[in-house]
User: Fold this.
Amino acid sequence: MVTYIVRRLLYSIPVLFAASVLIFFSVTAVGDPLAQLRQNPLFSQQTMHNIEKRNHLNDPITTQYAYWVKDALTNKFGSPLLQPGTKIWDDLKRVIPHTLQLVLLAEILALLVGVSIGVYSAIRQYSIFDYTATTFSFLGFAMPVFWLALMLQILFTNIFIKWHVRIFYTSGLSSQDAGTGIHFWIDRLQHLAIPAMTLMLLSIAQYGRFMRASMLEVINSDYVRTARAKGLPERTVTLKHALRNALIPVVTISALNFGALIGGAVITESIFQLDGMGPYFLNALLNQDAYVVMAWLMVTATAVVIFNLIADVLYGYIDPRIRYD
Amino acid sequence: MHRSHFRLVLGVLVAVTSLIVAGAAGGASKKSSAGSMTFGAEQEPPCLNGFTSGCNNTWTSWTAGIALANPLIVMPDFSTKPFMGNVKVLSKKPFTILVTLKKNAKWSDGKQVSADDLIFTWKTIVDPKWDIASRSGWDSVGRAVKVNAKAVKFVFKTPYAPYRTLLATTSILPQHALVGADFNTIWDNNYNNKAGQTMASGPYKLQSYTKGQSIVMVRNSSFFGKRPTLDKITFLFRTNTDTEIQAIRGGEVDAIYPQPQLQLAQLRGQSGLRVQTNAGTQIEHIDINTGAGNSTPLLGQAWFRQAIAYSLDRQGMVKQLFATLNPGLVIDNNLSYFKAQKGSYVPHFAKYQINSKAKRIAKVAAIMKAHNCTKGGDGIYSCGGEKASVRLGTTSGNKLRELAVEIMQAQAKDAGIEFRADSQPSRLFFPRIATNKYDLALFAWVGTGDPAGQVDIYGCADAKSSDNPQGYGGSNWKGYCNPKVTNALKASDAALDPRTRIKLVNAADAQMAKDLPTIPLYQKPTYFVFKTSLKGLVDNPTLQGPTWNTQNWKAG
Assistant:
């Protein structure tokens, strides 16, 4: 198992390298990152010259890439283009935990609910519950995130206006004077609840559908029939024999989701003003700040690689027939 | 119900109830108390040192920047008034001003705001080592002479007419806190002196800056002016317009200052909220590329540009754009002064506004006929084989501008001129403008109320020199050159008598109204939305912004 993990990690190095080359060249090739500053007739030409020199903007792209590699390895990704006093790594350390809090809350709850709905729908195929779950799943798939987010914001704002009860906040990560300990975490939960709901509703639809399909395949298989024939209780047959095997596709999907969401749920985090990876990336991209975009990319790509690896390892745990060579 | 299910349901109910109880209590405590308020800031300052290029942002000066006072202040009517100091002209040759600081002006660490600080500020701004966003004005100062502990004489290399605006837009830096420091990196996240104390000369001082979330300002008891009433002002970053609107509706913030967006209309009828609106300093306009890079030589002809201007019902367009937000907004008819500047603003471009559609079409037809243009089967004129068809571009994604383009396309088409849509995201749009690859471009210039620098935008391209390192006309991407305009604008920048200056600027403006390198549209309105329980909040549409008088703010 250890050999397998080490080998997979080694394989990921050229993947990350290729991704970094591709992204660096495309971000840099988009245009002049100082274009907006150049429009300002009052902007100091001396400062423009300082920025160009410090960031090697007049060098060939390959040279700029080499400087990035050097900064990434020796200076923890360096500083943003226009803020030499800011460290990119410090910013990443700030935003990653915020994104993790949101993603973990939303994805764990979505997995629990989605898997439960999927299993129950499969067991009670063509029941009213199944039809209702199917209908809501399609609604979930079809609903644009920004619209759902706005509707939830309006709903909870109107609840506050009507009853003066603040169940959840509609934006931000914390209140002023949120306190410490349990008070801080209750406040944080009140802020994360609506964004988590937004992400959750979409993921529930996805996990529910996958789980239902996978479960339907498994509950009609020979080994499940054998388990029933042996006289095992239905609960044991479903949870121990069928569910475990049916989980494999959902594990794949959720691992990919987790990995991708570490890069930030860009729309959700931006709408709810959560200081996470999504808005951090978006701002960097709009400012054409290649160094920040690259740092974000490296973190996200690493997360995707790690979560894929976790998924592969989990397959072996869920289905003992799978072996690693 | 099964026991384990019962436990689960009970657990969920307890959790939800605790959240509601905690929320209700939290909600009550968040109401603006007698001593504090929260302000939804539409942008987050990238960092706090507003002098440097990386942190230079209007929201930097409107939030944390209120800690650092300027010698003068720009009032809502664009006039300048003494604030932490005053200024007077000592001589015209060489141009010399005396800047005096208030006797009771001191830093929050107890030290006096001094003449040394004034000189240090100037030296810091002109030091080429530092990434100062703009050195304009201060780089015209030849030397500074300390007169006494609170006064400095600045001797300019050349006369500098907008000296009052310069002093109203420059905060004074504390020498004792910053001397010897790397100005490019210091004060990115705080305004601390070497002992770690926060520095302020304005009404509020910085208590905390949580990146991505908030800036908290608390009362500065050393402030030279009237004692600020509020104990604390918290700026929460709410950069999404919809989120900002829900935040103020739901009482999560007490005030917002958003860009004009159509969604704001819903706040107008909301009880408990007040909306103040003014014509702001962003001048939406259409630049016309009269030279190389345009798609038709017709744009090089003044009569054709005039035909374009006559084809547009600018007031009708503004009415459509701001029907619910600002039904009373009127168009801008001067490129150099704002409407609020009474005595300076002369509506030179008003002649192009014809309200009647039939008369507009007839006016364009008369111009076209006089230049032997004929209408084609598609209703568009052709002049000497050149079709009256031009590209009109703007920054895509900006709903107001996109709507404006659609309206103007329809208006021009009615008059026989075709506008081909040519919009792009701003990151691609602006580099194209700066390299003259456009016909008509709709965007905004941000003004200060002082016409200094107009020669960069409308002047003939000039050779670079030590006095003029960028070359005049450095931002003139219109291929436009009229020596009359250039000379008048150059002379105005050096004219120290205000009346002479207004005359010169308006002479240039009148000439540009004939030449039409630019068609002014409207001053983008400002919106200051706040709870009616708050008192003393007054919109300042100048660059001074909504937080110009925080010392007068009171929570009801």
Chain A touches chain B through 64 residues (CB under 8 Å). The longest helix of chain A spans residues 181-219. Chain A has a mean pLDDT of 90. DSSP finds 13 helices and no strands in chain A.
